[in-house]
Give the backbone structure.
Amino acid sequence: MFVKGFSDEYGRYRMMAEKAVAQVADDAFNRVLAPDGNSIAMLMRHVGGNLASRFSDFLTSDGEKPWRDRDDEFADGTFARATVDEIWKNGWGVLEATLATLTDDDLTKTVKIRGQELTVHEALCRSVTHTASHVGQIVLLARILAHDQWKWITIPKGQSRQYNQNPTLEKQHVR
């Protein structure tokens, strides 16, 4: 039940990011809006790389893999959307495959990230929060870069009362 909750939250964030990114033109996908800032492409490369590293051999090896080049995920450059999508989807695929194997009994087991021991529960909390923060950045950048073409991916401004009468974005609780 608890692992499923993590899986559901990751899924919500993935959906939000993908709906936002789909609204960004290719010529804006790599745009950096502030000095030393990140583009959507950089953030997607980072999230994909982070998820692949953290969740490959999750219970048996350190989450910071020697093959990962975190600094390269933030490298300046122009990245093809298809290449970025591949990195993004790979990371999410590794995460989803790992979550599918975990049970609630695994939450008290210990894993390592950069040599630091964490319970699986702590590692999942840390990861979902990290992912959510970057998804928020992606959504904000997409909102800015889409200009007046933006279509709301959550409750539109001024429509909370209307939404609350049929809350279709909410997680259905099963007890």
Q: What stands out?
A: The chain has six helices and two strands. Residues 30 and 41 are 5 Å apart (CA to CA).
